[in-house]
Design goal:
Elements lengths: L1 H12 L20 H7 L33 H30 L5 E8 L4 E4 L6 E6 L8 E5 L2 E2 L5 E2 L5 E4 L8 E6 L7 E9 L3 E6 L4 E4 L8 E6 H6 L6 E4 L13 E3 L3 E4 L8 E6 L5 E10 L1 E8 L4 E4 L7 E7 L6 E5 L2 E2 L2 H4 L6 E4 L2 E4 L8 E7 L4 E10 L2
Parallel strand pairs: 1-9, 10-17, 18-26
Antiparallel strand pairs: 2-7, 3-4, 3-8, 4-5, 6-7, 8-9, 11-15, 12-13, 12-16, 14-15, 16-17, 19-24, 20-21, 20-25, 21-22, 23-24, 25-26
């Protein structure tokens, strides 16, 4: 009887909430500390030392600890957690910087290469496994054409030189204008972009303003046709279609009547101006290109040494109503407009030239020259092209 009552009393005391030992196998929650166990059992807590039941207040709690922190105080556990947090932040920061570096745009080295029609285009290769692609300027929306990949030339338009150091395009023309992209598989950041401009001619002629421009026709099957591209188009937009100035029937384009003459030896454009600069293409009776010539119109230059008190003559080349005359004195090098479309301006008074300037047809006369008159007299047409420049030097008495 006594034994059974003793067992019952022990079972009752072992129920959750009645324990004051804090033993994990007797039903106490694992996370309950010594202080909580004491308060749960109705005991007073002294903060340090022992409880009234003899439990040491400084003893470690009886609940289970995570691995590696058994027997540590709460402060010690928090101190140990701090490095873990710092490591986490450092990892996030590193990941961010890495992703930023990977997402950063690759810098492309941009180049421009200008060649004449018929020249060879040499592309330096960064490695034998380089990749070269081409995007035509005449069809920028078209798919890029692969010229070379993994060290192999895959286009019939290109070839390797004997040293395998350059990719070569023979005799470039208008169809070759565009952007060539060169990539190095061994160094992904090594990318070059080459913009190729093909000038429309391989021969150039310099002709003075107002003179005649001759294109040889020896060996060309007649009748011929003549095409033209202005210099601005020829230099940067050669893929644009040309203007037909002279048809195979000998009919000139509007605005060119009376300016062309054709014989078996030459086709001639008379009295050229700055507006005539550009590329001229001659096609034979079958429409094949036989000549490509670029015209450069140069101004006339005259150096005049005039004795003191004598008269200087400035030839305008064109009718005075079609030109402007600017004067740049040697003493300050500032340009002044002296004449505009045949009329002298008030600048002649400011410069001390009044009464000494006169106009005789297409010639301007400066009488009784002085040493202070030394300088440049520039003549331009109504489009701003230079016609002639006269340099005045006054000789001493």
């Amino acid at each position: 009887m006594g034994r059974s009552m003793h067992l019952k009393s022990f079972r009752d005391s072992a129920k959750p909430g009645n324990l004051n030992t804090g033993h994990p196998h007797l039903g106490m929650p694992r996370a309950m500390s010594s202080r909580a166990a004491a308060e749960r059992s109705g005991l007073s807590w002294k903060g340090s030392g022992t409880t009234e039941t003899g439990i040491n207040a400084d003893s470690p709690p009886l609940h289970r600890h995570p691995p590696g922190v058994r027997g540590l105080s709460r402060r010690s556990i928090e101190d140990r957690r701090e490095p873990v947090s710092m490591m986490t932040v450092s990892g996030i920061l590193f990941s961010f910087l890495l992703s930023t570096a990977l997402c950063a745009p690759v810098k492309v080295k941009e180049e421009t290469n200008t060649l004449f029609h018929g020249d060879d285009f040499h592309i330096l290769l960064p490695s034998q496994g380089a990749e070269v692609t081409f995007r035509s300027s005449s069809a920028p929306r078209a798919t890029d054409v692969i010229l070379m990949r993994d060290g192999n030339v895959v286009s019939t338009r290109a070839k390797l030189n004997q040293y395998l150091s350059h990719l070569i395009l023979d005799a470039v023309g208008e169809a070759d204008e565009g952007v060539y992209t060169v990539k190095n598989p061994e160094t992904p950041d090594d990318i070059r972009s080459i913009s190729l401009i093909v000038r429309d001619c391989s021969n150039e002629q310099n002709v003075k303003y107002g003179d005649n421009f001759h294109i040889q026709l020896l060996g060309v099957m007649t009748p011929i046709s003549l095409e033209y591209k202005p210099s601005a188009v020829e230099a940067t937009q050669t893929s644009r279609p040309a203007l037909v100035l002279l048809t195979s029937t000998g009919l000139p384009r509007g605005g060119y009547h009376g300016r062309f003459s054709v014989n078996d030896r030459h086709v001639t454009l008379n009295t050229v101006t700055g507006a005539d600069e550009g590329s001229y293409t001659v096609r034979d009776a079958e429409g094949k290109i036989q000549r490509k010539v670029c015209l450069n119109v140069k101004e006339h230059q005259n150096f005049e040494r005039v004795p003191y008190g004598e008269t200087m003559k400035i030839h305008l080349i064109l009718n005075s109503s079609l030109v402007k005359l600017n004067y740049i004195p040697d003493y300050d090098h500032k340009p002044r407009l002296l004449m505009d479309k045949g009329e002298f301006t008030s600048a002649q008074t400011d410069l001390g030239l009044e009464g000494r300037l006169s106009l005789d047809g297409s010639v301007v006369l400066l009488e009784r020259v002085k040493r202070s008159d030394a300088g440049e007299f520039e003549v331009t047409d109504i489009l701003g092209f230079h016609v002639t420049t006269a340099y005045l030097e006054v000789e001493r008495k």
